[in-house]
Amino acid sequence: xxxxxxxxxxxxxxxxxxxxxxxxxxxxxxxxxxxxxxxxxxxxxxxxxxxxxxxxxxxxxxxxxxxxxxxxxxxxxxxxxxxxxxxxxxxxxxxxxxxxxxxxxxxxxxxxxxxxxxxxxxxxxxxxxxxxxxxxxxxxxxxxxxxxxxxxxxxxxxxxxxxxxxxxxxxxxxxxxxxxxxxxxxxxxxxxxxxxxxxxxxx
Length: 203
Hints:
Radius of gyration: 23 Å
Number of domains: 2
Structural class: alpha+beta
Helix content: 10-25%
Number of helices: 5
CATH superfamily of the largest domain: wza like domain
Largest sheet: 5 strands, mixed
Shape: elongated
Distance between the termini: 56 Å
Order of helices and strands: HEEEEEHEHEEHEEHE
CATH architecture of the largest domain: 2-Layer Sandwich
CATH topology of the largest domain: wza like fold
């Protein structure tokens, strides 16, 4: 596990793609094969067909979970591994080419970024969805949303967090105390996927 993480860090530093799957591609491959990653919507995929540059494309995964590949049309990619997508493309191209050699490389993990975002909704100046950053707190996220409006009931704000077992844990947040009195007792550190809601006052 430690060696795998070090390899990932090295690849990031040298600017190489992180995820690759190949089907009979000759020669060394300077990418890290990760078989268990499941492709998501908005991830960006590079499809390479050996000796057929006209069939090689770099495309995003559409909202319907598919990508478009020259000659064979749409191919399902969402929820599948790069290797599975490579195998499907090879099978479909086999109708037109003899023993096609296909590589599928995941070049951008956009779906992963989407799932790890932090969201702030309700009585804030600008409801936002921002990328999670290590060390973020409730106050950081609320400030990114422009702060609360004059109609906000800040001390009734809540933080919602989805647990690994699928349940949702709720934390009471006292935003007015945080922002006006410097009381940081409920300025909780955030985790990827957290949602903060700020209700309006009841008139």
